[in-house]
Specification:
It is built from no helices and 28 strands. It is mainly beta. It starts with a strand and ends with a strand.
Protein backbone atom coordinates (compact mmCIF):
# COMPACT_ATOMS: atom_id res chain seq x y z
CA UNK A 1 0.00 0.00 0.00
CA UNK A 2 1.30 3.45 -0.97
CA UNK A 3 0.45 6.45 1.23
CA UNK A 4 0.76 9.52 -0.94
CA UNK A 5 2.46 12.55 0.56
CA UNK A 6 1.86 15.17 -2.12
CA UNK A 7 -1.32 17.12 -2.75
CA UNK A 8 -1.05 17.63 -6.52
CA UNK A 9 0.98 15.94 -9.23
CA UNK A 10 2.15 17.94 -12.22
CA UNK A 11 3.75 15.02 -14.07
CA UNK A 12 2.82 11.38 -14.58
CA UNK A 13 3.87 9.43 -11.51
CA UNK A 14 4.65 5.74 -11.30
CA UNK A 15 5.54 4.85 -7.72
CA UNK A 16 5.39 1.19 -6.74
CA UNK A 17 3.44 0.73 -9.96
CA UNK A 18 0.80 3.36 -9.04
CA UNK A 19 -0.01 5.60 -12.01
CA UNK A 20 -1.49 9.07 -11.47
CA UNK A 21 -2.31 11.39 -14.36
CA UNK A 22 -0.83 14.92 -14.17
CA UNK A 23 -4.28 16.51 -13.97
CA UNK A 24 -5.42 14.39 -11.02
CA UNK A 25 -5.42 15.64 -7.41
CA UNK A 26 -4.53 13.17 -4.66
CA UNK A 27 -4.63 14.66 -1.17
CA UNK A 28 -1.88 13.94 1.30
CA UNK A 29 -2.46 10.72 3.24
CA UNK A 30 -4.62 8.90 0.69
CA UNK A 31 -3.78 5.19 0.48
CA UNK A 32 -3.56 3.66 -3.00
CA UNK A 33 -2.59 0.05 -3.66
CA UNK A 34 -0.03 -1.28 -6.08
CA UNK A 35 -1.00 -1.33 -9.74
CA UNK A 36 -3.82 1.19 -9.38
CA UNK A 37 -4.44 3.98 -11.88
CA UNK A 38 -5.92 7.43 -11.30
CA UNK A 39 -6.92 9.14 -14.54
CA UNK A 40 -7.65 12.68 -15.80
CA UNK A 41 -9.13 15.27 -13.41
CA UNK A 42 -9.87 12.73 -10.65
CA UNK A 43 -9.77 13.82 -7.00
CA UNK A 44 -8.91 11.40 -4.18
CA UNK A 45 -9.37 12.79 -0.67
CA UNK A 46 -6.90 12.28 2.17
CA UNK A 47 -8.78 9.59 4.09
CA UNK A 48 -9.58 7.35 1.12
CA UNK A 49 -8.36 3.74 1.17
CA UNK A 50 -7.98 2.25 -2.30
CA UNK A 51 -6.83 -1.31 -2.95
CA UNK A 52 -4.60 -2.88 -5.57
CA UNK A 53 -5.28 -2.85 -9.29
CA UNK A 54 -8.05 -0.24 -9.05
CA UNK A 55 -8.94 2.02 -11.98
CA UNK A 56 -10.42 5.46 -11.28
CA UNK A 57 -11.64 7.01 -14.53
CA UNK A 58 -11.82 10.59 -15.70
CA UNK A 59 -13.48 13.08 -13.32
CA UNK A 60 -13.93 10.54 -10.50
CA UNK A 61 -14.23 11.84 -6.93
CA UNK A 62 -13.39 9.66 -3.90
CA UNK A 63 -14.32 10.97 -0.45
CA UNK A 64 -12.46 10.72 2.85
CA UNK A 65 -14.53 7.94 4.41
CA UNK A 66 -14.44 5.63 1.42
CA UNK A 67 -12.97 2.15 1.05
CA UNK A 68 -12.45 0.70 -2.44
CA UNK A 69 -11.34 -2.92 -2.66
CA UNK A 70 -8.88 -4.57 -5.00
CA UNK A 71 -9.55 -4.65 -8.76
CA UNK A 72 -12.54 -2.31 -8.70
CA UNK A 73 -13.27 -0.22 -11.80
CA UNK A 74 -14.86 3.18 -11.27
CA UNK A 75 -15.72 4.64 -14.65
CA UNK A 76 -15.87 8.30 -15.73
CA UNK A 77 -17.87 10.92 -13.81
CA UNK A 78 -18.61 8.84 -10.69
CA UNK A 79 -18.50 10.39 -7.19
CA UNK A 80 -17.90 7.90 -4.39
CA UNK A 81 -19.02 9.83 -1.33
CA UNK A 82 -18.29 9.30 2.37
CA UNK A 83 -19.61 6.10 3.97
CA UNK A 84 -19.51 4.09 0.73
CA UNK A 85 -17.58 0.80 0.75
CA UNK A 86 -16.84 -1.16 -2.41
CA UNK A 87 -15.58 -4.70 -1.91
CA UNK A 88 -13.28 -6.50 -4.35
CA UNK A 89 -14.07 -6.41 -8.05
CA UNK A 90 -16.97 -3.95 -8.06
CA UNK A 91 -17.75 -2.25 -11.39
CA UNK A 92 -19.23 1.27 -11.28
CA UNK A 93 -20.51 2.27 -14.73
CA UNK A 94 -20.13 5.76 -16.22
CA UNK A 95 -22.00 8.54 -14.40
CA UNK A 96 -23.69 6.24 -11.88
CA UNK A 97 -24.59 7.94 -8.59
CA UNK A 98 -24.12 7.23 -4.89
CA UNK A 99 -25.83 9.28 -2.19
CA UNK A 100 -25.04 9.44 1.53
CA UNK A 101 -27.86 11.58 2.95
CA UNK A 102 -31.41 10.27 2.67
CA UNK A 103 -33.28 13.59 2.96
CA UNK A 104 -30.84 16.41 2.09
CA UNK A 105 -31.56 20.11 2.52
CA UNK A 106 -29.10 22.89 1.76
CA UNK A 107 -30.25 24.84 4.82
CA UNK A 108 -29.97 21.91 7.28
CA UNK A 109 -26.65 20.31 8.25
CA UNK A 110 -26.93 16.51 8.13
CA UNK A 111 -23.31 15.30 8.00
CA UNK A 112 -23.94 13.36 11.20
CA UNK A 113 -26.75 11.46 9.44
CA UNK A 114 -24.73 9.84 6.65
CA UNK A 115 -25.97 6.32 5.91
CA UNK A 116 -23.59 3.49 5.05
CA UNK A 117 -23.70 1.94 1.60
CA UNK A 118 -22.03 -1.43 1.02
CA UNK A 119 -21.44 -2.92 -2.42
CA UNK A 120 -20.24 -6.50 -2.08
CA UNK A 121 -17.73 -8.47 -4.11
CA UNK A 122 -18.13 -8.61 -7.87
CA UNK A 123 -21.30 -6.50 -8.14
CA UNK A 124 -21.98 -4.42 -11.27
CA UNK A 125 -23.62 -0.99 -11.09
CA UNK A 126 -24.71 0.00 -14.59
CA UNK A 127 -24.27 3.37 -16.28
CA UNK A 128 -26.41 6.19 -14.84
CA UNK A 129 -27.95 4.03 -12.11
CA UNK A 130 -28.50 5.51 -8.64
CA UNK A 131 -27.82 3.76 -5.33
CA UNK A 132 -29.75 5.46 -2.54
CA UNK A 133 -27.75 5.49 0.69
CA UNK A 134 -28.26 2.79 3.29
CA UNK A 135 -28.53 -0.06 0.80
CA UNK A 136 -26.41 -3.21 0.65
CA UNK A 137 -25.80 -4.63 -2.82
CA UNK A 138 -25.16 -8.38 -2.66
CA UNK A 139 -22.29 -10.33 -4.17
CA UNK A 140 -22.26 -10.38 -7.99
CA UNK A 141 -25.59 -8.56 -8.20
CA UNK A 142 -26.21 -6.64 -11.43
CA UNK A 143 -27.94 -3.25 -11.41
CA UNK A 144 -29.09 -2.27 -14.90
CA UNK A 145 -28.37 1.07 -16.55
CA UNK A 146 -30.55 3.89 -15.23
CA UNK A 147 -32.08 1.87 -12.38
CA UNK A 148 -32.76 3.46 -8.98
CA UNK A 149 -31.99 1.16 -6.05
CA UNK A 150 -33.60 2.17 -2.74
CA UNK A 151 -33.37 -1.10 -0.78
CA UNK A 152 -31.05 -4.05 -0.26
CA UNK A 153 -30.27 -6.24 -3.26
CA UNK A 154 -29.81 -10.02 -3.04
CA UNK A 155 -26.65 -11.73 -4.24
CA UNK A 156 -26.70 -12.47 -8.00
CA UNK A 157 -29.93 -10.48 -8.46
CA UNK A 158 -30.62 -8.60 -11.70
CA UNK A 159 -32.28 -5.27 -10.89
CA UNK A 160 -33.86 -2.91 -13.45
CA UNK A 161 -36.27 0.03 -13.48
CA UNK A 162 -37.32 2.98 -11.33
CA UNK A 163 -37.57 2.00 -8.57
CA UNK A 164 -35.45 -1.05 -9.28
CA UNK A 165 -37.20 -4.41 -9.31
CA UNK A 166 -35.77 -7.90 -9.14
CA UNK A 167 -36.33 -9.43 -12.59
CA UNK A 168 -33.82 -12.27 -12.75
CA UNK A 169 -30.38 -13.59 -11.82
CA UNK A 170 -26.86 -13.07 -13.17
CA UNK A 171 -23.90 -15.44 -13.12
CA UNK A 172 -20.44 -14.47 -11.91
CA UNK A 173 -19.44 -14.57 -15.57
CA UNK A 174 -21.95 -11.75 -16.22
CA UNK A 175 -24.71 -13.50 -18.15
CA UNK A 176 -28.37 -13.89 -17.22
CA UNK A 177 -29.30 -17.20 -15.62
CA UNK A 178 -32.48 -18.77 -17.08
CA UNK A 179 -34.23 -19.35 -13.76
CA UNK A 180 -37.28 -17.58 -12.27
CA UNK A 181 -36.93 -15.11 -9.42
CA UNK A 182 -38.60 -17.63 -7.07
CA UNK A 183 -38.91 -21.40 -7.05
CA UNK A 184 -36.54 -24.33 -7.33
CA UNK A 185 -33.93 -25.15 -9.92
CA UNK A 186 -30.28 -25.29 -10.89
CA UNK A 187 -28.11 -23.98 -13.71
CA UNK A 188 -24.58 -24.73 -14.89
CA UNK A 189 -22.65 -21.85 -16.47
CA UNK A 190 -21.35 -23.03 -19.87
CA UNK A 191 -18.26 -20.82 -19.56
CA UNK A 192 -17.05 -21.60 -16.04
CA UNK A 193 -18.96 -24.83 -15.20
CA UNK A 194 -20.06 -23.17 -11.96
CA UNK A 195 -23.35 -24.56 -10.66
CA UNK A 196 -26.06 -22.24 -9.30
CA UNK A 197 -28.98 -23.45 -7.18
CA UNK A 198 -32.27 -21.61 -6.64
CA UNK A 199 -34.08 -22.30 -3.36
CA UNK A 200 -37.28 -20.27 -2.90
CA UNK A 201 -36.06 -16.69 -3.49
CA UNK A 202 -32.32 -17.18 -2.93
CA UNK A 203 -29.70 -18.10 -5.51
CA UNK A 204 -26.37 -19.59 -4.42
CA UNK A 205 -23.34 -20.87 -6.24
CA UNK A 206 -22.29 -24.34 -5.18
CA UNK A 207 -18.77 -24.50 -3.82
CA UNK A 208 -16.41 -26.86 -5.68
Amino acid sequence: MVILLACRFTIDLKMNNVTIHPSAIVDEGAQIGEGSRVWHFAHVCAGAKIGQGVSLGQNVFVGNKVVIGDRCKVQNNVSVYDNVTLEEGVFCGPSMVFTNVYNPRSLIERKSEYRNTLVKKGATLGANCTIVCGATIGEFAFVGAGAVVNKDVKPYALMVGVPAKHVGWMSEYGEQIPLPTQGEGSYTCPHTRQVYTLNHDQLKRQQP
